[in-house]
Structure formats: structure tokens, C-alpha cells
């Protein structure tokens, strides 16, 4: 009987998790292993004082990224998240509406910040695409592109997109039925699809001049040519400037660039 009780005890002890009958404990999830609040505050305060942090945004919606933390401070809220628990995803992209007298365009990205810790509510951050690379350098994990957004990180990329959208608003050039379009002489890959026609003012008014060239350039190459003629130190003047035709040197502006139909 003693032997039977000993065997039962051994079985029960095994079920309880060890030779000594002590129950085995699973390690808690990593996000539960949080330091005391005072240690968190000390860590944030120390890293916030460093000069290598990433910071952007107006006072009412300020974003700061340190070595370990992401902090978003708005007029009515404060969000803080530990970098090691985060997943960041680009969910939207917006470009400001532009007029010819406006400054250079800007692409703004919306990035969702989600934590593996269920106690940390997800929040969104918004920043200029020109700052995207600097933000990536400060993060421990890569940013996912959930919306397949084309991110323009250079001034030229933003200008070419705006140049194309403005040309689409101009009156088209109707190609005569007896003419055919050749390859663009700039890239020799795409068909020529733009023609310079003086649309901005009356024929003999203003700086722009009539251009009698046959369509020889594609929209992308014409945009690159337009950008190459600008003052790189003053991008706010690009959209309202005048440049010479790359073939005949007649002056034109963006209003004179017409898509071929």
C-alpha cells in the first residue's frame, strides 16, 4: 500500500511539473516585463535630451523618436510606445493641392504605430516624405508599406509628379491624322507625347514665345528638362518660372506644355 501511494505521488508530482512537485511556470510575454514607471520616465528623459533624436512636426502635433521610444505629443493627447514592441505601417499618402504661385509640393505620409503590448493603443503619425529616410534610420524595425504607396523622398520626385498633374489640366494638342509620333529624343524609350503651345497669354504678350517644334519629347523627359533649368536653391519659384525649349530655345512655362492626343 505504501508503494502504491508512492507511485501515485510520483505521478501527481510529475503532473505538477517537477521532481519536487513544484508547478512549472511559463515565462510571461516580453511586453509584460516592463520596468517600473520611474525607470521608464528616467529612460525617456535621458534619451530625449540627446541631440541625435529624430523630431518633427508643429508644436500641436510633435513627433519625437529616440533610441528606445516613440513619442507623439498633441494639444490634447500624449502617446508613448517602446520601439522593440512596435510595428509601423504606411497606410496613406496625401499631396497638398498646388497652384502656380504656391511653393514646392509636399507629400505627407500617414504611418500607423501598433504595439504588441495590448495596453498600448495604436496611433498614427504624419510626416513629410522628405523626412522618411531620417525616420527609418532612427527606427529599430523596418516600416511596412501596407498601401503600396510610392514615397517621394527627393525634391525632384515631388516636382515631376506635380508637373505631370498640372500638364493634364492644360488643353491637349490634337495630332493631325497624317502624322505619327516618334520615340522621345530624350530617353529613346517612350513615345513623344507633349507639344509646346503658347497658352498662358496672347501670342505677343509675356515672356513665353511660340514654339513650332514637332512633338519630340515625352512628358517625363520634358519635366526633367524643366527641373534642370531651375535655381536649386529656390524651389519655391520652380512652378512659376520660364525655361527655353530644349530644341528651339523658345521660352515656355508649365501652362504651355500640352499632352498629345
Automatic annotation (TrEMBL):
The keyword Transmembrane helix applies. This is Uncharacterized protein. Residues 1-10 have a biased composition (Low complexity). Coiled coil: none annotated. It comes from the Eukaryota. InterPro entries: TM129. It comes from Micrurus carvalhoi. GO terms for molecular function: ubiquitin protein ligase activity. It holds the Pfam family Tmpp129.
